[in-house]
Every structure is written in structure tokens, then in C-alpha cells.
Description:
Belongs to the 4-hydroxybenzoyl-CoA thioesterase family. It comes from Arabidopsis suecica. This is Thioesterase domain. One of its GO terms (molecular function) is fatty acyl-[ACP] hydrolase activity. The chain starts with about 45 loop residues before the first strand and ends with a helix. It has a 5-stranded antiparallel β-sheet. The protein has helices at about 65-80, 85-90, 165-180; strands spanning about 45-50, 95-105, 115-125, 130-140, 145-155. It has a single domain, classed as Thiol Ester Dehydrase, Chain A (Roll). By secondary structure, it is an alpha+beta fold. The protein contains 3 helices and 5 strands.
Amino acid sequence: MAAPVMHVVFPRSWRRRHILPLRSAKPFKPLACLELRGSKGISGFHEIELKVRDYELDQFGVVNNAVYANYCQHGRHEFMDSIGINCNEVYRSGGALAIPELTIKFLAPLRSGCRFVVKTRISGISVVRIYFEQFIFNLPNQEPILEAKGTAVWLDNKYRPARVPSQVRSYFGYFQHQHIVD
């Protein structure tokens, strides 16, 4: 004799709600980094060169996907430092930057010892958000490895969204002025 069938009904609050796509997420255009003239954001890139370390590899001998987010963070921090914004000073003064959204498109793998460049630019600024684009290219052949788009939110000392300070906006404006594409 078969066991009786039991129907389990979860409370309405436990049921999976319909998940809507993020409105701020924009689809990637392949190698959008090469289309500088059509950009409405800051056209210049900040570049840093890095090298793959052995402990960043997975069991298949390529850089673990999670490590690319670290490369992007390092690129953002170096970009901020290069325009005069010290991230540690921001934190000491009670502010913070959070990355609520980071979309990464993997194009090719990096392997042990590979040299590569992380290119970072700001694509737009709103009242509380800073939108950025990042690209990783293998050296010396400039093979595209990764495209990333993300959003940083300026936070106050209670970790609530706050206006991007005018001084920070002016640093971005100065960088944009220095990197205008003809």
C-alpha cells in the first residue's frame, strides 16, 4: 500500500515572490570600452597593471571568478587615489562607499603569471550614486578578458545613502576635463 500523499502549503509570506529585473542594470555591448566617442560619462580611463598570483587560481589553473571582483575593487581604489580621494580618509570621516551592484561579463581566462591591465572610468554620477565601468585586458596583446559595470553608493555615518560631496564631484569633473576625447 502506498504512503499517503501529504500536501505542504507554506504561509504566503514564505512563498517565493516574483523577482523583477533590476531597472538600473543595462545590457552589455561587446567591447563597449572601445566606443569612447559615444560615451556620455567620463571618457578617460585610469589604468593599473597587475600580475596574476598562484594563489588566485582555481583547480582548473585559471583565475577564480571571485578574484576578478578584487581586481575591480583595486582598480576603483587606485582610480580614486589618482584623482585625490583617499578611501581610508572617507571612512575615517564617517562616510563610506558601498557597491550594491556589480555586473561582470567574463570574456577569456587569465592564468598564472599573466600580466594584465585594469581600466576604470566613471560613466555617470547621480545625487547619491557613482556609476563606473571597468575592463581588464591581457598584456601585451590587449586581449579583452573582462567587462564590468557597477554602482557605488555614498553612505553617511549611519550607512544610509547620502549626497556625493561637492568636493568629490569636483575631483571627477577635473579628471573628466583632463581626459576629453576629441
